[in-house]
Amino acid sequence: MTQRADAGKKKKSSKQNPNNLNVNILQTDPPTSNLKRKRQKVKHDERKKEAELPARRKLKDDHDDEEDFNDDSPRNSDAERMLQDSDDNDSQSTGSETEYDAEFSQSDEEDVGIDGQPNYEDSVHLSSFNLHLEHNLTKEEIDNQNGSKFKWEVPAIGMSSCKWIGTGENILEDLNSNSFDGLKARLYEHWMDVYKTSGGKDLNSSMQKIFFSLCSRYRDILHCNKKPFYVKGLEDTSIMDAYIMHSLNHVFKTRDCVKKNDAKLSRAGESAGSDKFRDQGFTRPKVLILLPMASIVYRVVKRLIQLTPSAHKVNVEHMDRFLTKFGSEEGNEENDHDSENKKPQKASKPSDYEVLFGGNNEDDFMIGIKFTRKTIKLFSDFHTSDIIVASALSLVNKIEEAGSNKEKDVDFLSSIEVLIVDHADVIAMQNWYHVHTVIDHLNRLPSKQPGTDVMRIRPWYLDDNARFYRQTIVLGFYSNPDINASFNHQCCNYEGKVKLVCDYKGVLHKVLPEIRQIYERFHVDSIVDADDARFDYFVKKVFPRIKDSDQGGIMIFISSYFEFIRIRNFLKSQNASFCLLGEYTTQSDISRARNWFNEAKRKIMLYTERSHFYHRYKIRGVQNLIMYSLPERKEFFPEILNMLDGSANMACTLMFSSLDKFRLDRIVGTNKAKRMVTAEKSVFFFCH
Asked: Given strand 604-608, what is the order of strands in its sheet?
């Protein structure tokens, strides 16, 4: 292992082409898809191996009736720890198929195909799961990662004004919308039962099937038009269910193939010297789910338990501890899917704020989930878990601890094969750089000797190429440049990328006061100069208008904390009369600043977007609004402008550049935004 690992360290990560969104519809129509070609190659290799290895064929023939399993297809995961589970005593059997193996190798081994019907023939070794993990990545393919471009587009079913764009082969072109292809039959049947019991009608929706199919094809996915549960209670639960089922499917298939390879090795009395038995990573955890708040963990984990087939959750360990740590004080353990319907006690805050922050707002958490034969173990050791659900902040703390203490490590991140980032827009309000740090530390070579048999570890783990096999799924209400940068640069799955792109109608119609909105565009040469260009425009063009004015009630809205500090320092240098309301301002200083501003004891107030996100204050006394930078969250725009309602001399000035296209899209609408960033004139007026 040491020689291969050392060799792997010399290989450097290939980065994706940054922000290349020039979408060209694919003109060629390949006669055979990559998936079909992979399956044909697997079949050819199997026939060749069977001809060369008659002993292997005999072993296979002896057990085909029991297992429907191809022993020439390596599988993925870490079984050595699994075999030590206290309730997996049957794993020590060497003579005949154990009860556990029988459960997983018969009815549950088939994959679901068209219209929910099982695919019995070649269902295991020809699944997307195996084809993805068994692929031998070439140096040429790694080098070509830099040249990947979005070159095809397909309208998104069920989402008006949206389209999927992707790199590589157009996998949506021939996608069967009536299929849950690759899903284990037992998972599918239980999923159906759960929906029937709860009265759900969306299980077989084309939108859900397409998203699950995207997941099962192991492409990197950026879906930033996911309706969140806190906005009018219209969470797109079909998307959450799809990624949970994909995670369970990946974990169970990983578990199945390791168990079966163990049984084959035991019966044959052989050692794991053949590449066909390389089915594991360095450590056991295979799925990592990043979430922003403990209350959202509560929703996701409860749903994950619901969607786990009954045979695998006869016992759920530490459920009381889970309810105590992640549940809210309002008893939502009984109504976790109906929490959006509960009425807020007061209307002082917007309804979405009441729902999002109405539960446990802890943002430093981490929980391991382990599946044994009949038990779901919550709070399992991270190194022996199957799924880890965590906040980016908690993982960053773990990474820093490992960096300063040699006895600690984050090797449980070394073999993550599916990364899911849900509610990415909320995480962006917290600190997206934490996500960047976490992704950067995924799939690194472990710092300590792994407990896994080195002869069972897949070659691409040893070659330090695991990041090219990791699937990353990013979900949110909207995207921003930071999220896009991580998706473009840090996600380098050899299968390619799929991304949802949408046109927006804007939120100008939600502005209540009839006020003249003045949008002023400033010139930017490059993204490196953007902050300085914005600041120079404010200092030279905007501030002189208010410096000598006697009018008070001037609110300067700022999106970035670093911009907030810069403007604060500038106002200090100008001896301006101002007060602060930022995300780190103490509660006593906030109350004092609001009173000063309302009573005109301070002329200017600096107000940050993150402060509004966490508190949703309604500031009184605003007469002149200056948006130094547009808000990331579109719902904040009308909320801030509506603070002018009732003022005698209302004024509103908004600064933007061509680099603010994403934010401008969501505020004024996609069509208007295109004209505003490309037109020769630089000043635009709106009045609603």
From this structure: 578-581, 604-608, 554-558, 624-627, 651-656, 516-521, 683-687
